[in-house]
Amino acid sequence: MSSSDDSYLLDRTNATETARLNAQHEGYITALGYHIHPAILAAHPPTAALKVAEVGTGTAIFLQDLAAAHPSWTLHGFDISDAAYPPPVARPTSLALHLHDAKTPFPAEWHGVFDVVHMRLLTVAMGAREDWTRVARHAAQLLRPGGALQWCESNYNPTFLRTAAARAEDAGVTLRMQEVFDGLYHVLGPAMAGVYEPFTGEAVVVKGALRAAGLQRVWDDVVSSDRDIETRGKFARVNTAVGVNLLKKMRGEDALSAQDLERIEQETASGLYTRFDVHMCIGWKP
């Protein structure tokens, strides 16, 4: 069953949203070039049977990828809702999924169990600044000594670019796609202000949360979302869909007209796309 305290802003039960989440996953993995950061893998023998947890697992697509690539690994996913979980018959035997709200402590039975904890794109589930540190602290409890936590977030301040194939006249300052994101920031800004801060210095939200949770050697691996030329268009559609769906959720279905949606599709098809920084923040448990 799903928790009544689910803070996810989109519809988990919608098949379209599940497909979008899985496509978004592919985009992030392509941009990063890995599932588990190479520095984390290098700390273990190549044949090690790792224990990996994902907090905020969503559709569990990340863990399903790991199960296919590493059959000997033990994988556990946690989320406040099971609405997007694959059915039990579709889950690999090495994968177990559980209900848990990451803003509350994990049961003691899970403490010190995992070699790696993965978290990604939890922004829309966060409220106060303290939530970031609270979630990081609870996730860090899952790690064994020497284990690593990796937390992937984006700067959510996209630049709107055009490929060589896009026409200059399609890049006007009144682009509907850009207006969608500007409207989204206006609606969500107060709750998500901390995420918009630059990922530099000691005030970084995620890295600061990892340090506050007691993790050491905290740093971030930064890549551009458009690093892979072949997937720029697909990734643009996925991320624009997030903006469209969130804006409708916050302002109602009439926030965007059919004409608006058609123009956004035309802009994307013409070669316009969004670019943003992807940060994989990593910390190690002493």
The termini sit apart by 36 Å
Order of helices and strands: HHEHEEEHEEHHEHHEE
Compute the number of strand runs.
9
What is the total number of structural domains?
A: 1
Named at the architecture level, the CATH assignment is: 3-Layer(aba) Sandwich
What is the top-level CATH class? Alpha Beta
Estimated radius of gyration: 19 Å
Uncertain spans: 191-203
**Count of DSSP helices?**
8
Percentage of β-strand residues: 15-25%
Structural class estimated from helices and strands: alpha/beta
| Biggest β-sheet description | 7 strands, mixed
In terms of quaternary structure, what is this? single chain
> CATH fold name, please?
Rossmann fold
Helix content: 25-40%
CATH superfamily: Vaccinia Virus protein VP39
Rounded average pLDDT: 81
Placed side by side, the strands forming the largest sheet appear as 3-2-1-4-5-9-7
Organism: Carpinus fangiana
Domain Methyltransferase type: 54-149
Protein name: Methyltransferase type 12 domain-containing protein
Pfam families: Methyltransf_12
Secondary structure topology:
Elements: H1 15-32, H2 38-41, E1 51-55, H3 61-69, E2 74-79, E3 95-99, E4 114-120, H4 129-140, E5 143-154, E6 159-162, H5 176-196, H6 205-212, E7 216-224, H7 232-251, H8 258-269, E8 272-275, E9 277-284
Parallel strand pairs: 1-2, 1-4, 2-3, 4-5
Antiparallel strand pairs: 5-9, 6-8, 7-9
Describe this structure in words.
The protein is 36% helix and 21% strand. With 286 residues, it is an alpha/beta fold. It has a single domain (15-284), classed as Vaccinia Virus protein VP39 (Rossmann fold, 3-Layer(aba) Sandwich). Strands 3-2-1-4-5-9-7 form a 7-stranded mixed sheet. The model is unreliable at 191-203 (pLDDT under 50). Residues 54-149 form the Methyltransferase type domain.
